[in-house]
Amino acid sequence: MIIAREKRKNNIAEYVLYMWQLEDLLRSYNFNFEVVKQKIIDGFKADELTSSEISKWYLGLIQMMEIEGIKESGHSQMLKNTINDLNEVHNKLLNKDEEEGYKQIFLLAKQNIELFRLKSNNINGNDIEICLNALYSLILLRLSGKEVSIATNESMNSFSKLLAALSLKYKQWEEGLLEL
C-alpha cells in the first residue's frame, strides 16, 4: 500500500508494473492472508495503525481479485482502466502540435512496439499496454535469471523512455498543469 501509493502518485507506469507484480505475488501465496502478512506486511515494520491499514489494503486486493475472477491469471479492472487512461493521454499527446518531444520518443519506440505486438500475439493491444507487457516480461526474465539479448534490451529501453515521458505528462495532466 505504501509503495503502491507513492508509485501511483509519482510514476503511473511503475505503479502498474508494481501492481502486476503484487497480483502475481498474491497468486504465488495462494491468496493466503497469513502468508501475505508474514512475508509482506510484517516486513514494513510499521506501527500498529499503519500495519492495520496495510493489512486492510492487502485484504481488499485479495478480495477484489477473487471477485473479478483473476485468481489464476489476468489483471484487475482497475489496472486495465488505468492502462486505457494512459493510452488515451498518449493518443492525445500524439495529436497535440506542442508535443514534438513526446512524438519523437514515440517514433523511436514505434517499430519495437509493432515487433513486440506481433511476437506476443497481442494484435488488439494498445501501444501502452504493449510497452507495459514487454517490460513486465523483461522483469520476469530477469527474475528467472535468463539472459537478455542486446537487441531486446535496446527495445525495452525505448519502451522505458516512452513510459517515463508518458508518466510525467500524465502526472502533469492529473495535477492540472497540462491541458489535453
Distance between the termini: 30 Å
Task: Flag low-confidence runs.
Answer: none
Count of individual beta strands: 0
Order of helices and strands: HHHHHHHH
What kind of sheet is the major sheet?
none
Task: Note down, in words, how this protein is organized.
The two termini are 30 Å apart. The chain is globular, with a radius of gyration of 18 Å. It has eight helices and no strands. It has helices at residues 2-10, 12-28, 33-39, 48-67, 77-94, 100-119, 127-143, 150-174. By secondary structure, the chain is an all-alpha fold. It has two domains: 2-67, no CATH class; 77-174, no CATH class. Helix 1 (2-10) runs antiparallel to helix 2, helix 2 (12-28) packs antiparallel against helix 5 and helix 6 (100-119) packs across helix 7 (127-143).
Summarize the structure.
The chain is mainly alpha-helical and 180 residues long. It is 74% helix and 0% strand.
Features:
mainly alpha; 180 residues; globular
What topology emerges from the helices and strands here?
Layout lengths: L1 H9 L1 H17 L4 H7 L8 H20 L9 H18 L5 H20 L7 H17 L6 H25 L6
Helix pairs in contact: 1-2, 2-5, 6-7, 6-8, 7-8
